[in-house]
Amino acid sequence: MASEFDIIRRYFTRTGKRALLGVGDDCALVAADKGTVLAVSTDMLVEGRHFFAGADAAKLGRKALAVNLSDLAAMGAAPRYATLALALPDADEAWLAQFSQGFFDMADAFGVELIGGDTTRGPRTISITVMGIVPPQLALRRDGATAGDEVWLSGCSGDAALALAHLGGRTRLGDAALAHCLARLHTPVPCVALGLALRGLASSAIDVSDGLLADVGHIAESSGVAIELRYAELPRSRALKGCADQSLVQECLLAGGDDYELAFTVSPDASGRVASVAADLGLTLTRVGSISAGEPGLVSVYDASGKLMQIANRGFDHFGS
Amino acid sequence: MASEFDIIRRYFTRTGKRALLGVGDDCALVAADKGTVLAVSTDMLVEGRHFFAGADAAKLGRKALAVNLSDLAAMGAAPRYATLALALPDADEAWLAQFSQGFFDMADAFGVELIGGDTTRGPRTISITVMGIVPPQLALRRDGATAGDEVWLSGCSGDAALALAHLGGRTRLGDAALAHCLARLHTPVPCVALGLALRGLASSAIDVSDGLLADVGHIAESSGVAIELRYAELPRSRALKGCADQSLVQECLLAGGDDYELAFTVSPDASGRVASVAADLGLTLTRVGSISAGEPGLVSVYDASGKLMQIANRGFDHFGS
User: Fold this and answer.
1) What percent of chain B has pLDDT over 90?
2) What does pTM read for this prediction?
3) Which of A107, A200, B6, B214 could cysteine-pair with A112, CB 3.0–4.6 Å?
4) Of the candidates B32, B44, B85, which has its C-beta nearest A120's C-beta?
């Protein structure tokens, strides 16, 4: 059987270009470029919780890194380095080959070097720490939104949750809609270019991973402001538009999670610049609400007639019921 | 029940001094001091593999960080930051209070700021990434040993393994010996001060976590040299000296692991400086072997009569049998 050291050598060692020292010593050595600092984020994915047992290993390798890069994107940071800690029930070489291929496909697409990690036997668990660089004064923090700012969303929310609803038997999607939603669930693409373009433009930003309401709620809390969302203006995919169960649609849009889009705020006089960014990057960016001086941390959703909506499911909590 | 966000707020958020931005945003923001780079290392600890189910949570919190700081020590890096990813079967508040207390005790002892992380439900698993700073030209790498260098070891190896041998019923320690060995197993102290003192002195270094033979083997491989250890000169604790089972003693000393001592090499004319470091820090540092120009990666052990020893168990492999 492959040893721990064989596994690292065979699947997780590549020659890097940027790190002063990469995989293979007690530590890696890295430096930030002049005028920048390192942005650091960590995520942990657990089998049966964040991905199904038997999940496609290549897609899992891609996604595990993608969800971390999404945090760098939300900070306006350019990706640079990652460490990977991996617990596996056994040293399954086919799984390792596929997982590492998916991981490095995503790493190569965004210029990320794997600089270190750990492999051990245990219940299948993936923990990744990513590092990127950003000039500190241009970092997209959560605490910069002010009353009067507009709230924007990239792409649309809810498709990954709609895929899960289909897989769980709660709805039945047609082939095209299912294929679209499964791709959104299993192969999300982090909004790295958008994060970079929002430097100096967005007053705050966050990536939508736990559900739109919960995540903009973090902006509201950190910034000490209230947020008002306009439900009718939330962008929807064709798959979600085709779903007749309006309660499910609402849950997917507002509390679905696993979207890896960016929600961000800009001052109202910056709408034109946002439109330019959308055009330059070929992205759909939609104004979905505004910041008010109401109760700090409060997120309210209004329907098309301007009536406050009652929302039961407000997002994902890993220790909630 | 406490939510994921409550847990982070209650147990894992403290005001830091060094990080530009700590826990609570998509990423933390950190910078290295002028003239230094960041040293980065990641470890993953799994219940049932690296620690027992029901292990004392405070000691576990201490040790989880300590084993990571040991990697920084082996690089000659000064500890600065850590991220913590934690999977837990449930949000057990007593466990969290103890674990975080232990973690922060260790963090405070070595000036480490917790800058981010992730908590999720899953089989109990702890993944920590630590960051320290070191002037790049002074980093203690594995690849700098040259023929003629001496091999040194801090403290002694084997006590943690002897504790495990007792717990597994393979030997029976007296009360004092058991207490000593259990402390070495459960509350290791990373050799941070020694790592800093070895900057510019050691030609290579590694921390002893998988067993002395396996770990100095990494120096031999990376440096392209052979290592000759003198078995009779390996330092032994009183507990290990009191053990009559010489086969067990040999296994503990050479292949025990979980020691978190530093093995390092210096040029032969630097023995006096090593002795000064030992005196300054109040540490026992012992010359245990030498580097030769033999087969790269080979580690040989010689007995007191100069005879080559045959070693069956050569160290810990997380995917070995």
Assistant:
1) 82
2) 0.92
3) A107
4) B44
Which residues of chain A are within 8 Å of residue B7 when distances are taken between CB atoms? 319
For residues A143 and A204, is the Cβ–Cβ distance under 8 A?
Answer: yes
Q: Where are the domains of chain A?
A: 4-137, 141-302
Token readout for A140 is 């997209």
Report pLDDT digits (tens) over B110-152.
999 999 989 999 999 999 999 999 999 999 999 999 999 999 9
- B84 in reach of chain A (CB within 8 A): yes
Contacts of B273-279 spanning 24+ positions with Cβ under 8 A: B273/B201, B274/B152, B274/B201, B277/B194, B277/B197, B277/B198, B277/B201
B298 touches chain A (CB under 8 A): no
- Contact of A31 with chain B, judged by CB distance below 8 Å, is answered with yes
Mean pLDDT (chain B, rounded):
93
The token duo for A254 is: 């507002």
Backbone angles phi, psi at A17, to 5 degrees: -115, -35
Dmax (CA) for chain A in angstroms is: 65
- Tokens linked to B290: 């030498």
CATH number 2.60.40.10 given to B4-137: no
DSSP, collapsed to helix, strand or coil, labels residue B215 as: helix
Domains B4-137 and B141-302 belong to one CATH topology: no
* pLDDT tens column, B15-35: 767 888 888 788 999 999 899
| Interface contact A71-B26, CB threshold 8 A | yes
Contact between chains at B72 and A32 (C-beta distance less than 8 A): no
Q: Are B123 and A125 in contact (CB under 8 A)?
A: yes
Task: Search chain B and give the residue with CA nearest A79.
Answer: B27
Say yes or no for a CB contact (<8 Å) between B74 and A30.
no
Is B319 close to A4, i.e. CB distance below 8 A?
A: yes
Token pair for B42:
């990641």
- B230, pLDDT greater than 50: yes
Interface residue of A42, A115, A207, A218 to substitute, partner B, most B CBs within 10 Å: A42
Beta-strand pair A113-121/B78-88: unpaired
Is A258 in the B-facing interface, judged by CB distances under 8 Å?
no
SS3 (DSSP) at A255 = helix
- Does the structure show a pLDDT above 50 at B321? no
CATH topology of domain A141-302: Phosphoribosyl-aminoimidazole Synthetase; Chain A, domain 2 (3.90.650)
